[in-house]
Please model this.
Amino acid sequence: MKNRDALRQWLLGEQAMLWVVALNAVVIFLQESGVEWWPLTVVDSLCTVVFMVEMGVKLRVQGWRVYWRSGWNVLDGAVTLLAVPSLLVYVVPGLGVTKVLMVLRLLRLFKLFRLVRHFPNLKALWAGFMLALRQSAAFLLAYAVVLVVVAIINSAFFGSLAPQYFRTPLDGMYAMLQLFTVEGWYDIPNAICVGLKPVWVHVVRLYFCLLLIGGGIIGMSLINSIFVDAMVADNNDDVKQKLDDIETRIAEGQHRVEQQMEELAKQLKDKA
Model:
């Protein structure tokens, strides 16, 4: 009975399970790096079994409704259930869907997100992120519309000249994202300019330079500045509130000192 209670406490202990998650991540990393060693397979399977038992213990202790009411439990439980079929690879040799099951096994890496909930001020960070997302949503939408429009225009004009970049509007959107992030952007106009007359070469290069400046340098900078300003706005409000509180306390202190000085002066006058 004592051993059973100790095991249950160990499974419910967050610190112990974090060590299991970290161990499983190391094992998967080694396996995906090409290390073929049978103890790794054993440890990997044992980690899966431990996660299954942990989920069962939590369901029994917390109850079905309480367990699935927690967002962290939803993530943890879903990953565990999706990774369980990977055990069939070791039970049924030569299974035809081995690759699919092994990919599901990799989903256990999402359990590393359990570390995130131990970060300090996680709720404040998440609230700041959502606030920044809401405040920059309009600009992000406008940026996305411009991206789509430019991608369609480029696909119409340059689809035959550089099909590897502009065969379809989706290809064009990907090429524009590559251009806006200044990642090998010069390869795109160079591919278009092959076989063109010199005058059109200059026109194409100028056009893509303008796209780079407008959508990449200016556009991305505006997105970053808006998002960062919104992220720190909440902190600025807190600092301003604290400064206001300090000023209020100083003013109240000065008022009390003035009253005490007036009372002292009145007492001295009465004695005189």
Notes: The two ends are 86 Å apart (CA to CA). The chain has 13 helices and no strands.
